[in-house]
Write a structure and sequence with these properties.
246 residues, alpha/beta, N-terminal domain of TfIIb, 2 domains, seven-stranded mixed beta sheet, globular, binds S-adenosylmethionine
Length: 246
C-alpha cells in the first residue's frame, strides 16, 4: 500500500530541499514541457515547489499527489496549480506527457510493471532517478543513525534530520529511515518523528535494460541536473523517454 509524506516530513520538505543546495529541477522540467503538446501529469507533485513555477510559466500541467498534507501545502503555496489527491496506482487517464522528478519513481515497487503502466497513459516520460554512491561506497555508515541536515525554524527553533540506511547492491534496494527532531531555542527536544522508505536503485546497464524491456527508448539523458563536468560521479540522472511503437 503506497504511503505519502506526513508530519514533519511533509511540513519541512521544502526547507530541507533548500538546505541541500542542489540545482533546481524547474529549468529541466520547463525545457521538457516546452516541446510537449496536450495536458501533462506530474506524479508526486508534493508541496508544489516545482509545480507552482511551471504552472505560472503557462504549462498545461496537473499535479497528482497521494499525501493530503502535501496537497494542502501545495494549495496554500500555489492555489492556481491544480492537484489531484490520489495514489498514481489508482489514477486512470491519458496525458501528452508524464513527469516524475525528484526520485518519486524509486518509491514504487516493481519498476518494470510501473513503466509498462506509464506506457498506457502517455508516449512521453520525464524521469529523474538518483544513484546512492555515498551509501554504496561506505561514505555513510550502514545500520547506524547519522546526522543528515539541520534547518532553522521561526523563533530560534530548529529541525534536525538524522538518517539510517541498509543497502543491498545485489537487489538494488535501499531501506532508509528518517528521524525528524524539533528542538526549542535551548536545544531541548520537543517532538520526534520517524519515517521509513524502501527505495529501488539501478545500475546504468540495468536501467537501460529495464527501459527497453518495458517499451521505452531514451531520447535524452542529463547528468546531475545539468551541473556535470567530465569525470564527475553521476548522482542524479534525468531521462526523456519515448514509447517505442508496438
Ligand atoms: C520525493 S517526494 C517529491 C515531491 C516533489 N516532487 C518535490 O520535488 O518537491 C515524493 C512525493 O511523492 C508522493 N507520493 C509517494 N507515493 C505516491 C503515489 N503512489 N502516488 C502519488 N504520489 C505519491 C509523496 O507523498 C511525496 O510528496
Amino acid at each position: 500500500m503506497a504511503k505519502g509524506y506526513e508530519g514533519f516530513e511533509a511540513l519541512w520538505h521544502n526547507l530541507f530541499w533548500e538546505a541541500e543546495d542542489a540545482p533546481s529541477e524547474v529549468p529541466l522540467m520547463d525545457e521538457f514541457l516546452e516541446q510537449k503538446r496536450g495536458q501533462s501529469l506530474y506524479i508526486g507533485s508534493g508541496s508544489g515547489r516545482l509545480l507552482g513555477p511551471l504552472v505560472e510559466f503557462g504549462h498545461d500541467l496537473v499535479g497528482l499527489e497521494l499525501s493530503p498534507e502535501m496537497v494542502a501545502l501545495s494549495k496554500q503555496c500555489c492555489p492556481e496549480a491544480k492537484v489531484i489527491e490520489q495514489a498514481w496506482q489508482q489514477h486512470e487517464g491519458q496525458y501528452g506527457s508524464i513527469l516524475i522528478p525528484a526520485f518519486t519513481f524509486q518509491l514504487f515497487p516493481d519498476p518494470q510493471k510501473q513503466l509498462q503502466r506509464l506506457g498506457q497513459q502517455t508516449n512521453h516520460l520525464y524521469l529523474t532517478l538518483f544513484f546512492p554512491w555515498a551509501e554504496l561506497s561506505g561514505e555513510l555508515p550502514q545500520k547506524a543513525w547519522y546526522f543528515d541536515r539541520r534547518i532553522s525554524l521561526p523563533e530560534g527553533f530548529q529541525g534536525e534530520l538524522e538518517t539510517w540506511h541498509q543497502i543491498k547492491e545485489s537487489t538494488g534496494s535501499l531501506h532508509r529511515r528518517h528521524r525528524y527532531t524539533l528542538r526549542d531555542r535551548d536545544g531541548q527536544v520537543l517532538k520526534r518523528e520517524e519515517t521509513e522508505q524502501r527505495l529501488r536503485f539501478f545500475t546504468d546497464v540495468g536501467l537501460k535494460k529495464l527501459f527497453s524491456t518495458s517499451g521505452w527508448e531514451i531520447k535524452r539523458e542529463i547528468a546531475n541536473l545539468g551541473d556535470y563536468e567530465d569525470g564527475d560521479l553521476v548522482y542524479v540522472s534525468t531521462f526523456h523517454l519515448e514509447k517505442v511503437a508496438s
